[in-house]
Amino acid sequence: MSTPPAASKVTPFAKPQYTAAQNSRTPGPVRVVGGTAGGGHATGTWVRPVTMPGSGVMASVFSTIHLGENGITVIDPGWTGRNKEGEYLRELDDFLRERGRRLEQITQVIVTHAHPDHVTAATCLLDATRARFIVGEQEWRTVEKSRTGDADDPYAPWPERFGTPAGVLDGSVEHMKNQRVPAFIPRRRPDVQLADGDLLADHGLDGDLGARAVVTPGHTPGHLCLVNEDAGIFLAADMILPEIHPGIGLGIGQLGGNPVIEYLESLDRIREFDDLLVIPGHGYVFSGLAARRRETAEHVLGRAWEVRRVLDWNPEISVWRLASQLTWSSGWEGLRESPMLVSGLRQTMMYRDLVLSRDSDGEDALTRWERIFGLDEGCRVPRAEH
Ligand SMILES: [Zn+2]
């Protein structure tokens, strides 16, 4: 995660959520009223922030709960600390009882992506209810890959690939060899796996809240969004966030693509939801997706231009030396000593490949993306990462 330029043009849906994000606090639950396409009617959908270790918008993660006629859907159960599962379930049950429902009435648990802040509480929630467990088919493939050790990762941190000095990546290579399914992933197999474009109703699911699956790779390889155009709601999870920009290429397994390119494609693709109310994974519900997509594209392309300037000067430079020439929020020396080093190097290599990529008609990649997002040369300023 990294810091964008200030003064975002999005409009927060509920002031208390916005204020809480500024003060690293967890706001109370908010009932959602859909965007313009929904005519602004109140829905049975609540955003229930769950406290997690983090600051700013990352002080909580949004669990979205739909109180349907025939059951209850929970999208991203959220975070729970070790041995805090009982507390989590009690608080969720209290939330539901205040609205005339009970924990046992939860029928669907949907997970947008395999990150601990979104998925950890799924295990206890599935154990405590008879809910079906629903995931994106593409994201679940990364879980299977971490199970079999069959990682298809062009950005795996091998020292020879990154040109790192001897010893620097020893720890991470060891870690890769011992890779297993992380403990925060439910042991249970999903009951339903959604593919891009699937209507939830076609799987016999309640699609009141998330009617249709929209797969948006980039943050993770199979990141899942849900949209209900009639209700005017786009559930974006970590595809796009207020205040900060989502990290890219953070899957627990990879599916072979370049996450930065995939992220830009996803960012362009969700333009069809520009008029809807956005429920992100953190921060605050907002409208103004068009503006936020643009700000996010500026951030990604600003970084790409920084990488490009180094490559113009030395096209053969190693990933390691390329990274040393870039702006990092804790400085290059700081990054070298930090646990974020591997992710920083991976990202550098993804950006390098974006810069070197060309369209089938030979058009320069960065100019093409600027055109797609309607950006001018003003975006070509360095942006610090990490
Ligand atoms: Zn995430």
TrEMBL record:
Gene3D superfamilies documented for this protein: Ribonuclease Z/Hydroxyacylglutathione hydrolase-like (3.60.15.10)
Metallo-beta-lactamase domain mapped to chain residues: 60-282
SMART domains listed in its UniProt record: Lactamase_B
SUPFAM superfamilies: Metallo-hydrolase/oxidoreductase
Region feature (Disordered): 1-29
Alphabetized InterPro entries for the sequence: Metallo-B-lactamas, NDM-1-like, RibonucZ/Hydroxyglut_hydro
Name of this chain's protein: Metallo-beta-lactamase domain-containing protein
Organism of provenance: Corynebacterium variabile (strain DSM 44702 / CIP 107183 / JCM 12073 / NCIMB 30131) (Corynebacterium mooreparkense)
